[in-house]
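Teaching note: in complex prediction, the entire set of molecules is handled at once rather than each chain in isolation. The prompt given to students was simply: 'Predict the structure of this complex.' The entities are:
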Amino acid sequence: MTLTLESITYRYAGTGRASLSDVSLELADGEVVGVVGGNEAGKTTLCLVASGLAPRSIGGTLTGRVLIDGQPTTDRPMHELAANVGICFQNPATQLSQVADTVFEEVAFGPLNLGLARGEVIRRVTESLAAIGITELGERDPRRLSGGQMQLVAVAGLLAMGPRHLVLDEPVAQLDPEGRALVAEALRKLAAAGTGLLITEHDTDLLAGLCSRVVVVDRGKVVASGPAADMLADPRLDDWGVEPPARVRLQRALAAAGVRSELPQ
Amino acid sequence: MIDVVCSGLCYDYPGGVRALDGVDLTIHAGERLAIVGQNGSGKTTLIRHFNGLLRPTEGTVTVDGLDTRHKPVAALAALVGLAFQDPDRQIFAGSVEAEVSFGPRNLGRRGEELAAAVAGALRTVELETELHTNPYDLGFSRRKLLSIASVLAMNTPVLVLDEPTTGQDARGVRTIEAIVASVAAAGRTIICVSHDMRFVADNFERVIVMRDAKVVLDGPPHEVFAERNWRVLKSTNLGPPYAARVGHQLGLRSTPTAAALVRELQAAQPR
Amino acid sequence: MGRPGPSAYHRLNPLTKLVVALTTTAAAVILGGVFWPLMIVFVFVLVPAVAARVLAQLLRFMLIFSLPIAISALLINVFFYPGGQTVLFGLGPVTATAEGLSFAIEILCRIAAISGAVTLFYLTTKPSELVLDLERRGVPPRLAFVTNASVQTVPAMAERAQQIIAAQRARGLDTEGSAWKRVKGILPIVGPVMLGSISEVEERSMTLEARAFTRPGRRDLLWSPRDTTLERLARYLLLLGLVGVIGAKAAGLV
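The expected output is the structure of the full assembly:
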């Protein structure tokens, strides 16, 4: 399934300034794309538009089109889009429905809302938990898990609805290193299994290990796009408010001091 | 300038969980201290003892010689400013200016003095142009900087920041680093709880590693992040900064920061 | 699926437990006096509490919640009962009367019945299970969700309020000083609680939409609490019993 953003310009309700200007982006089936940029560059807005929440859930004005497999989604309601494109945000606690007493029920929330039959829902939830690697958390209370675990439950809950693409807006920003590692591992598994991922993050080390392509957003526009290795080593990242991965930073420090040395892999 | 001393500090949460188990710590005036450890190691519990929000179950905590058990939090807040991790559990005012004025006003500052404190703090976090903006019109990371400014403006001898770099972009991290530097330059003590090892190694002269309610490592970055301590770090789910790992792989002495790595490589280069 | 409760009473259908609480409360209030409410407390509150092994907790909660009301009801009626003639003793300007005392005791019995029934229900029923059961019986899913989510909000809000109080105290907010200072301190605490809740509501509503919550129409349930013919019968009998009580009272038989 291809997800395409075509010349998207978006303004939040009540503001005159465009948060996204003429942004075009294509996410091929199974592709993992990273989005970087400073705060308020438009990364979150991009995620909201890609998932359909903007303008359906939050209002605002959108010009341009969002297409799934070449078909415009303009007239499709949010609950239909939810089955095609899942979206996950950075605050683990607000990703929970709050009404589920167990992780299994939490992950079942989405598929049940889609009107699927009970048997089908159980099958999907079981598969989803296994795909993320959290089957053993099935009977736990989702509200008592660690931040990283909650994020995994959120992703499993989205996956169970069967989308071909997942949009993740700074999924590890509020997690400790342990949580980060958990989520990174789960995302690796998903990517390997063929789910398309659109990930916005400040943690360029995370993106370096996951993405084939990286897009840079600055002041509402896409200013650069290319293979991950190239983009994450681009000298202009600093101007765009992006911290390069540790390796790149170190290489630059060495080069600046005129020290010749090969950094081990 | 004041010291903070913990002596045999033990703390049990109601319900019986022992969150601090015999912590002995002296933080000298003007120190740049980072406290690291995984969730549940006791680091958040520890910093809440510095301004009296929590009082020891056993042992003592003294701030400038005053026992925290005998002073109300409102009084200790004039000595130790503490900014929490979640700005949204603190921000209540309708404007940036009102928000930042709250702390210093509680400490008795008025008029010129108050205005200067507020202006200074806002300049440090680059929010001086947003005096009348509603805090919720700022994005999350600028709200976080706002919450830090609110405590900065109190001009306390000791400043404690809980996870200041979480959620910040590159520019935000640099602003935090500048805050650490300027607070230390003014002779004030700065303490940060963080899980960003690079930020810790680059900006602090002393690192404390906590695990299971105890302090397990205490020293300058080049010691704490040296290879001989990696097993201890791993046991608490932490890892050394990338520069340290590279330095070790290249067979150099402990290099917790990029700058240290550069120095060691330059020293190793044949003339 | 389904949760095994710790006792047979816990495992009863939530609606059954609700009907027990409502009918016994209503009957105790209508019948009045001393004998009937206490009889009801014994049969419909204490016996199930023992079976459910929550007796100690039940008594503790009942005490905590009804003590203030009980004390004021006792004092008001013992000393100020209109029509009280038989004097028991005097206390300064007021006198205690036997009629007042007996009326107060009747009120206490009613209070015991009400607090007992409500507490028993609260201790043996999970709100989420009650909502699931109602949804199975046809309550619209979105209404069910809102009810469930609202109940869950309260403890979360309380926890958040604690954190906010800590943050504001760290900024010098005086919570240990004079009453006026504490009143002034309300906005810095209530403000973030409200604002935070609002922004959390925003994020949470996006989470719900991302999980197709707005799709109209019915949805399957993963599980719901089981119901048996015996329990259905019991519920009808209880309701019938209540009707009988009302009739008997109206006819002056009790």
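Point out the following to students. The longest helix of chain B spans residues 170-185. The mean pLDDT of chain B is 92.
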